[in-house]
Amino acid sequence: MSKEKTVEKQNKNFLSGLFRQQIFIPIAALIILAVFNLIADPSFFKITLGYNSAGDPVLSGYLMTILDYGSELAILAIGMTLVTAASGGQDISVGAAIAIAGSVILRVLCGTNSRPDTLQAPIIVAFLIACVVAMLFGAFNGVLVAYFKIQPMVATLILYTAGRSIAAWINNNELPIVSDPTFSYFGGFIPGIPIPTPFFIAAVCVLVIFLVLKFTTLGLYTQSVGINENSSKLNGLNPTFIKFLTFVILGLCVAVAALIKVSRLSSINYSVIAKDIEMDAILAVALGGNSLSGGKFNMAASILGAYVIQFLTTTLYKFDVQSDALPAYKAVVVILLVVLSTPKVREWLSAVGKKLKQSKTVKEVG
Amino acid sequence: MKKKILAAVMAATMVFSLVACGSSDAGSNAATGSADTGSAVADTASAGTTSADASGDLIKVGIINNDPNESGYRTANDKDMKETFTEANGYEASFAYSLKNDEQITAAQKFIQDGVDYLLLSAADTAGWDSVLKDAQDAGIRVILFDRTIDADESLYEASIVSDMAKEGQTAVDWLKSQNLSEYNIIHLQGVMGSAAQQGRTGALDDAAANDGFNLVTQQTAEWNAEKAQQIVQSVIDAGTPFNVIYAENDDMAKGAVAALDKANISHGVGKDVIVMGFDCNKWALEELKAGNWNYDGQCNPFQASYIDEIIKKLENGETISEKTVIMDEKGFDATTITQEDVDNYGI
């Protein structure tokens, strides 16, 4: 009897603990969306096994679409969370940086010929070069923010405006198309595996970042720099370098996302590829309950936030919402989140919570 | 004003004839002869105007265009302009690029100050051009619009060379009707809402939906973006709604749609389950057409330079332009009839 009670108590503690946990916000959003879809049309959750035109088995359905398209966002959210935590600002140039990294991948794969029959270089080489380039551009942002102390949004505005032109310049304004089928695996399916590859790539990235956060001091250092730069300096950290490092890591995330994006269509359009993805990435961080002004962060919540955003997007597409109205819906989510996270509303909410508890205990006593 | 231009042109012809004679070892008599007439013209030129252009040897054109990175169309358009308005063809061209109207207007003011002879303009936005074009008119600069029209009085420009987007849409819809499908369930992928291309290409299909019983399974803007198109089509496939036509308002979106079809193993192209239609005639798109993976591609002609060149030549010869609005010839290609020649000639 008493044992059961303690279990119950633990459960209760666990639940109330969950409420207080940061990850509660994206989970709640996910549940709301899922319930909404369940009521509106349960077929949303149907997953079917079919075959794509190459004859390989693929799973399809809305949930798979979410896993597929949410992956780039999840990868970007990793980098964006670190940048946000350390610098207290956001990088708005990730879309343009994806265009640059994608352009580099195409340039290396296609050489000067915009429509080669065979790849001019192994894919891994192209990817590694793209990583280096994207990290260099990340480093550029990082230098501006960390060493010159420019506001992150202002500093990254430079690349935001210039990036797509740079991307076009890399390929002489041509739009190369990769014809090699193996290249499409990264944004599609590996033959024989019915789950979209981007999900695996995202999973690997998530695994790596969790190992890094667990076994290195990166997480601790970024948070302390974000919370109080001066005191972390007094404690022997180098805030400048840590801020710089987060931007370089974001650059790496950008390169991975670019590989997926380019692979999806075997080509890109510089002016529209990954358009406005920076807003989604920032939204993922916000939806994860992380403070946009830096400091503590929860990586898992951000990553979950990214998939929640894709869930929202896919839901809106499903209900035939005009796609140019999508940003408006996302804006509503942002407003709700920002308002909910203000101290005033939090105080009010906790006051309401206390009142409820009190009335409950009163009832129990009575 | 006309006198001034005439003078400049005459001076230009004079210098040309001098140059021509200098380079070729023609008879010295002929050379002096033309030089004489030339100097006579030059006299009238200096008499006729107080500020005769010193560099009157070439026709100075200021070209204001949208950013060539905007699209394959714009890249081809810019390349065409650069190839036509060369010194070898008798032009001294300066270029200014922007996707923003105010920056374009600033560029136009600069060109007016530089004293160009012609202002060629592809406006980012239709509004706000009246005063600057009036300035150009006062300075004796002739304005020719290409690709985009503007909301300004017709007297402010000499000619406007445009594509008729509504006609492009109509051609495509007529082609679709001629396929005599038993039913038409169409996924309609629109461009950026409000753009001329979107309005024209959507208009024809909307009419057909209203009058011919075309069923629009979904009508969404993918904003010229392949990824967005892919997601929209993916969503329709996930919902299990049947469809047999994809009407994408540009090639990129058609490509995105096809990527989604491939993933779901839905066959597309000539004689297959789904008809794929695109616009703009990118070279790679025409190749898809030739391979039978797509069915139709409508042209949006980016090669306005030859039309402009012709008009400038006419104006220089003192002729008047009878028709202010010049609509370019535009084709629609059918996958069953397209040839390699078409791909090479019309691919951009």
From TrEMBL, chain A:
- GO terms for molecular function, please? transmembrane transporter activity
Q: Does the keyword Transmembrane apply?
A: yes
> CDD domains, alphabetically?
TM_PBP1_transp_AraH_like
Q: Please give the start and end residues of each transmembrane region.
A: 21-40, 60-85, 92-109, 121-148, 199-221, 241-260, 281-308
What keywords are annotated for this sequence in UniProt? Answer: Cell membrane, Membrane, Transmembrane, Transmembrane helix
Cellular component terms, GO, for this chain's entry? plasma membrane
Localisation:
Cell membrane
List the InterPro entries hit by this protein, alphabetically: ABC_transp_permease (IPR001851)
Pfam annotation, one family: BPD_transp_2
Q: How does it sit in the membrane?
A: Multi-pass membrane protein
Descriptive protein name: ABC transporter permease
From TrEMBL, chain B:
Q: What Pfam families is this protein classified in?
A: Peripla_BP_4 (PF13407)
- Read off the InterPro entries from this record: Peripla_BP_I, SBP_2_dom
User: Does the keyword section mention Transcription regulation?
Assistant: no
| One MF annotation (Gene Ontology) recorded for this entry | carbohydrate binding
Q: Which residues does UniProt assign to the signal peptide?
A: 1-20
- Residue limits of the Periplasmic binding protein domain? 61-295
Q: Cross-referenced PROSITE patterns, in alphabetical order?
A: PROKAR_LIPOPROTEIN (PS51257)
Where on the tree of life does the source sit, at the highest rank? Bacteria
Family designation: Belongs to the bacterial solute-binding protein 2 family.
Protein name per Swiss-Prot or TrEMBL: Substrate-binding domain-containing protein
Task: Please report the organism this UniProt entry assigns to the protein.
Answer: Waltera intestinalis
